[in-house]
Amino acid sequence: MKLVLIAMPDTAPIVVHEAAIHIPNLGIATIGAQIDKCHDVFIIDLVRKRNKVRRYLTEILLKLKPDLIGLSAMAWQYDTCVKIAKLIKTLLPQIKIVIGGYHATLMATEIARTSDAALFDFMVRGEGEEACRRLMNAIQGADRLEEIPSLSYKKNGRFIHNPRGELCDLSNLKLPIRDKRRLTWGYHIMNKKIEVIETSRGCTRGCNFCSIRRMYGRSFRTFPIKRVLADLDNIYYHKKTYHVFVTDDNMVLNPKRIIALCDAIIQRNYHKLVMMVQADCVSMAQNETMVQKMAQAGFKIVFLGIENISKKNLAVANKGNIVEASKTAIKHCHKYGMMIIGGLVLGFPDDDAETVKRNYEFFNEQDIDAAICQILTPYLKTGIRQNLLKAGLVSNHDDFKRYTGLWANVRTKHLSTEQLQYLVWYYRQTVLGWWNPSKLVQRDGKLWTGIWHYAMKPVLQYFHARQIRKHGWESLYRLEMERLAAINVFKDLEEF
After folding, report:
1. What separation in angstroms does the CA of 21 have from each of 14, 15, 106, 198, 232?
2. Is the pLDDT of residue 15 over 70?
3. Which residue from 316, 354, 338 is spatially nearest to 441, judged by alpha carbons?
4. Are both 123 and 66 inside the same structural domain?
């Protein structure tokens, strides 16, 4: 039997242009690798086919004629997922479709009650490795649908939701698919090839704006160090790729393990390896030795969840007062030559124009290399969503396509949704300003930082200044919002 796993083409360009970074989907690559060898598996990441989604899928699916197609989608990708499911049913009416990922996990009951339910034959809630493996066998007659944990299946036209299964034993998972079964290629960050690994799953922190616990519970599991090294070997030696994004929710929760992992990586002596990781400020602030080891092992770029500098806002997010920890974590990372991408969340209930501006000023004061500035989003089934709904501050309840972090879906006590959207954009332009690559970034990317600094940036600044003089900031803002709104509109899918 044939299985095709598909990741959505939608992207959220919070840092740079949507064409600058295309990172492969690790979820479908890992799920596909667990399917029993008696089946053929192919994976398609549509982020590499954004300009020809319909044409590409039509060609490849009619050629492969799979028995089952798996679609993976976040909440903000679900609209596109439905359109692709309709396309598939038009091309191959008898095909079976399973949907998984965050949206199916969070909203399986709700999906089953809508007209969309007619498009999907199965849903997988939570981790998909074991459920998808057994589903393929069940379709072939070697397993029973009603006995597969975490699976939702149809009986007499209605969805039956089996109980959720236990979390995977990560030590048993095979390495992700990165061979010719991955039908899409060309993943990159700027002009560098990039791959993705994971060393752990889950997070035990209590942030109430995050939906990760709906996938894994409030747990933290680690892959064996031996398995992580085997994955790095595959990327480094076989894929000839030296930039690696570690997709862990919060890799640094166990500092002793990270030090042991870094020691093992250092012994491998990977030349020119550059790794990027997400980390919480408290762990990085309290463990300078760990930060030093990470830098020695090749962790060059760290995303720090600074979130906000307001103690009141941090309390609303259930983060605790981490401002001083953020400052210390920044110092540790800079001390050992690590580039910092700071995570900032704006739009908390008490935010006004001055607090938005002050957060950006803090980033400048701390010499943060780059910023991911998101607007507080009422993600489904999160604590913050319930609190915001109760306070009457959610302005967009169900247009999930705008739940990317780019868009204001809330208002504050002092700002309307439209004012919040504008001020987050305006102060980013006027306070953070044009990006100036740090010495570390220039050293590791002389070609593209040189092109940016001496060619692209001056030209863009010239036209930007001319447009402001002619039309003003608000006109420029409207044009940018129109451009961003069109990013995930795929014209060849619009009829569905």
Report:
1. 11, 9, 27, 19, 20
2. no
3. 338
4. yes
Indicate if the pLDDT at residue 434 is higher than 80. Answer: no
Max CA pair span of the chain: 69
Domain end residue (candidates: 112, 137, 169): 169
Given 433, 465, 486, the domain boundary residue is 433
Looking at the structure, do residues 222 and 157 belong to the same domain, yes or no? no
145, 36: one domain = yes
Instruction: Say if residues 220 and 253 touch (Cβ distance below 8 Å).
Output: yes
Residue bearing tokens 């042991």: 260
Same domain? 73 vs 202: no
Higher pLDDT, 195 or 455: 195
- How would residue 210 be classed by pLDDT, with cut points 50, 70 and 90? confident
- Strands of the sheet containing 122-124, edge to edge, are 40-45, 2-7, 68-72, 96-100, 122-124, 151-155, 158-161
Domain that holds residue 159: 2-169
Read off the CATH number of the domain in which 68 is found: 3.40.50.280
When divided into structural domains, the chain yields a total of: 3
363 and 235 in a common domain: yes
Helix, coil or strand: residue 187: coil
In a domain, 178, yes or no: no
Closest CA to 424 of 352, 320, 343, 323: 352
d(CA 168, CA 129) in angstroms, rounded, equals 8
What is the separation, in whole angstroms, between the first and last Cα of the chain?
28
Q: How many residues can be counted in the chain?
A: 496
Structure-token pair, residue 299 = 């962790």
Domain of residue 327, CATH code? 3.20.20.70
pTM for this predicted structure? 0.94
Q: In the beta sheet, which residues pair with residue 6?
A: 44, 71
Residues 206 and 149 in one domain: no
Residue 350 and residue 312 in contact, taking contact as beta carbons nearer than 8 Å: yes
Per-position DSSP letters for 437-471, written without gaps between them: --HHHHHH-HHHHHHIIIIIHHHHHHHHHHHHHHH
- pLDDT per position as a tens digit, 121-174: 999 999 999 999 999 999 999 999 999 999 999 999 999 999 999 999 999 999
211 close to 381: Cβ distance less than 8 angstroms: yes
- What distance in Å separates the CA atoms of residue 80 and residue 348, rounded to the nearest whole number? 29
3-class secondary structure, 310: coil
